[in-house]
Design goal:
Blueprint: E1 7-10, E2 15-18, H1 22-25, H2 29-40, H3 49-85, H4 90-103, H5 114-133, H6 139-175, H7 180-196, H8 210-223, E3 235-238, E4 242-247, H9 253-258, H10 296-310, E5 316-318, E6 334-339, H11 347-351
Antiparallel strand pairs: 1-2, 3-4, 4-6, 5-6
Helix pairs in contact: 2-3, 2-6, 3-5, 3-6, 3-7, 3-8, 4-6, 5-6, 7-10
Length: 366
């Protein structure tokens, strides 16, 4: 039997991580909380430590979510700042943001307020962890509270993603879709330095960062609540030269293209949303038509900007493409690929972003 999941520090990843092999890492953290709760039970005894593990995993669920929440907050603020720099008036911005917040309102009709919802989520997670640790909550009650926490994060996550997509659609309507590239670059280039500079192959060998690359990929997509039922379960398959991560659906761009099957709302490409997909091929959108404007950030953050800086993508992406409701390409699973070596990355992955394969890097002396 595999050891029970717990948290530990990883020097390789540079942060606190879940234990477990790669197959186990593809399982949602929500499921891992439930497993620990059921192993612990309601009676204090030999398995009592699993309650502490469950409580820590609730905190870790919030740690995963925090990365996404902060990115959405910083990026959306950055896109709005870019619009101001282009001369969009405060009145026009206020009008559009009010329209978007109402469009992606909470189920009870309250306009989206990400900061307030995030604060409430943190309070709920803290109370849940406390109740688990103190035996103040039975396993059944803790699982019910966990389901509520998952639902509230899904609602906030999805609406925050929609708000960002709506702002990007406003950029495209006002300035044309080619303007999305400079808009994205103004916000994502500092982010590359913060999150992905560690993958600069001029400074350290590609192989030395491979575990970190795959781990944070799985962690990020658990937080985006990918997969059936939107719990954060990642499809993972290992090949000789790569790992493929598949999302059915991706909890952000994939859901926007397909529509929200849990809440019963339609594709964000269509009215009343009309968040937009590429009408022409662009290297920053894999030279494909039908890439949702939101999804293009994966190209820039994971492939184009790293390739410009040090020659090689961090990961490669095969996104769904809008071809109308129900079309197989629209409903295609998004796939991220983590290649096991630089040599394994095919030439076609460079061609899709308008580049060619560079010479292998020379590691600079420290």
């Amino acid at each position: 039997m595999a050891p029970a999941t717990h948290l530990t520090w990883s020097d390789e990843v540079g942060k606190r991580v879940r234990t477990g092999d790669w197959e186990d890492q593809a399982v949602s953290t929500v499921t891992k909380v439930q497993e620990a709760l059921r192993e612990a039970g309601d009676i204090f005894g030999l398995a009592a430590g699993r309650r502490e593990t469950a409580a820590q995993l609730v905190d870790y669920f919030m740690e995963e979510a925090k990365v996404v929440y902060v990115i959405y907050d910083v990026w959306t603020t950055g896109f709005i700042a870019w619009l101001r720099e282009q001369g969009v008036s405060e009145d026009d911005l206020a009008t559009e943001l009010a329209r978007l917040r109402a469009l992606v309102a909470w189920p009870d009709g309250a306009p989206l307020d990400p900061a307030a919802r995030w604060a409430a989520l943190g309070e709920a997670a803290g109370a849940l962890g406390n109740g688990i640790r103190s035996y103040g909550l039975s396993v059944a009650a803790a699982e019910e509270a966990l389901d509520d926490l998952l639902t509230d994060w899904r609602r906030l996550h999805d609406r925050h993603a929609d708000l960002m997509a709506g702002v990007l659609a406003f950029v495209a309507r006002r300035f044309g879709e080619a303007a999305l590239e400079p808009c994205y670059r103004s916000v994502l280039e500092p982010y590359i330095e913060e999150r992905y500079a560690v993958f600069d192959v001029r400074l350290r060998p590609y192989a030395d960062t491979l575990v970190r690359n795959l781990y944070i990929s799985l962690e990020a997509m658990r937080a985006h609540l990918v997969g059936p039922g939107r719990r954060g379960d990642v499809g993972l398959e290992e090949f000789e030269d790569r790992w493929e991560l598949r999302f059915d659906p991706c909890g952000s761009g994939g859901r926007q293209l397909r529509g929200d099957e849990i809440e019963g709302t339609g594709s964000r490409v269509l009215a009343p949303y009309e968040f937009g997909v590429t009408q022409e091929p662009h290297p920053w959108a894999w030279n494909e038509v039908g890439v949702c404007y939101y999804c293009a950030h994966c190209n820039l953050a994971l492939s184009t900007l790293p390739a410009e800086r040090w020659g090689h993508p961090v990961r490669t992406v095969d996104p769904p493409l809008w071809r109308g409701e129900g079309d197989p390409l629209t409903r295609k699973q998004c796939t991220w690929t983590v290649w096991k070596s630089l040599e394994a990355i095919p030439e076609r992955e460079y061609e899709r972003i308008g580049r060619s394969r560079p010479a292998l890097p020379v590691i600079q002396p420290k």
